[in-house]
Amino acid sequence: MTMTSALLFERIDRTQPVQSARSSIDNDYYEGIDELWWDPTGPAAILHAMNRPRLDFYLRALGGVRGALVLDAGCGGGLVAKGLAEAGATVVGVDRSAGSLGVARRAIAGGVGHFAPVRGQLEQLSFANGSFDAVIAADVLEHIPDLPAAVAEISRVLAPGGSLAFDTINRTAWAWVTALWGAERLLGCIPCGTHDWRLFIRPVELDRLLRRVGLEPVEVTGLVPRIGPQLLARALTRRHIPVPEFATSRDRRASYLGHYRRVSP
Ligand SMILES: C[S@@+](CC[C@H](N)C(=O)[O-])C[C@H]1O[C@@H](n2cnc3c(N)ncnc32)[C@H](O)[C@@H]1O
User: Fold this and answer.
1) Are 77 and 45 a contacting pair, CB within 8 Å?
2) How many whole angstroms from 76 Cα to the centroid of ligand 1?
3) CA–CA dist 48, 78 (Å, integer)
4) Which residues line ligand 1 (CB under 6 A)?
5) Is 24 helix (H, G, I), strand (E, B) or coil?
6) How many angstroms does the Cα of residue 235 sit away from the middle of ligand 1?
7) Tens-place pLDDT, residues 41-63
8) Cα angle 97-38-82, degrees, rounded to a multiple of 5
9) Is 65 strand, coil or helix?
10) What confidence tens digit (pLDDT) does each residue in 159-218 have?
11) Which CATH number belongs to the domain containing residue 19 in this structure?
12) What pTM value is reported for the model?
C-alpha cells in the first residue's frame, strides 16, 4: 500500500479495531529471527539503536523497579526485558511468538534478574485483574489491529496506581518516510511488510483509548534518530548508511514514548 492511497482512500481510526483484511502486517516474521534478535546489525538493529534511550525513559517513568512485578507486553527477544530484570524487576514477558520467548529466556537466564516467558496475545491476556505493578509495551502496539482490545487488557492487568510505559510509531507522512521507506527500503534493515502504515497510531488516538480504560497521561515525548555530519560522512565514504543512534526529543512525528498511570480502580 502506498501512503498516498491510504491518505486518499482510507479512513483510518485506530480507536476502532482494524479488520484484518484491511491491514497487511507480517507478525509471523518474528518467529524466524531466532538468535539474530541480539545481533545489533541484524533485523532488530533499529530496536538495538533505540534501546538505551527508551530503557532510560522506562526506568525513570517507573521510578525504580527493584522488587516490582513488570509485564513486558510483546517482549520479543527480550531487549527491554533484560534491562528491566538487570534493574531488579521480576519480568513476565508475553509474546505471540514462542521462538522469540525462547530467545528472551536464554538471553536473561544466567544473568541478573528474573524472567518468566508466557505465550499469549495482548488482546486476551491470561493474568488476573491488577496483577502487575507496571506494564511495558515496547514497539508492539503498532503491530496490533485490534488496539482497543489490547489496551483494555493492559489496563485490566495493571494494579491501580500502576504505570504503563510504551514506545510506538505515529501515523504521519514523516513516519512513512522514515520508519517505513527509510528502514525497509533505504537502510534495508527490516524486511518489507514488518510494519503497516495503517496500524501506526496518532498520539491523540492512543490518548483517547487509554483514558477510556482509566489511564491518565504523565509524559509523552519523541524518539528520533540522530542524523548528524558524522553519520553522513560515514555514509558517503563507506557507501553504506549505518543505522543511526536514537535520542529523546520534542519531535513526535515518527516514534514516541509515553508514560500513563492507572487512576481508576
Ligand atoms: C517489533 S517487535 C518488539 C519486541 C520488543 N518489545 C522490543 O521492543 O524489543 C514486536 C513483538 O510483538 C509481538 N507481537 C505482535 N503482535 C502481538 C500480539 N497481538 N500479542 C503479543 N505479541 C505480539 C511480536 O511477536 C514481536 O515479538
Assistant:
1) no
2) 5
3) 11
4) 27, 30, 47, 74-76, 79-80, 95-97, 100, 121-123, 138-140, 143-144
5) coil
6) 30
7) 898 999 999 999 999 999 999 99
8) 80
9) coil
10) 999 999 999 999 999 999 888 887 787 777 777 778 899 999 999 999 999 999 999 999
11) 3.40.50.150
12) 0.93
Separation between Cα atoms, residue 150 and residue 23, nearest integer Å:
17
Q: Among positive and negative, which fits the CA dihedral 99, 104, 107, 111?
A: negative
Quick one: which of 71, 73, 189, 62 has its CA closest to 122? 73
pLDDT band at 265 (very low <50, low <70, confident <90, very high): low
CA of 173 to the centre of ligand 1 (A): 24
Q: How far apart are CA 18 and CA 23, in angstroms?
A: 7
State which residues form the domain around 207. 3-262
User: Could you give the number of structural domains in the chain?
Assistant: 1
Residue labelled with grid coordinates 527509510? 182
Strands (E), the chain: 69-73, 90-95, 114-119, 132-138, 158-169, 215-225, 246-249, 255-262
At 112 the pLDDT is 84
DSSP states of 166-182: EEEE--SHHHIIIIIII
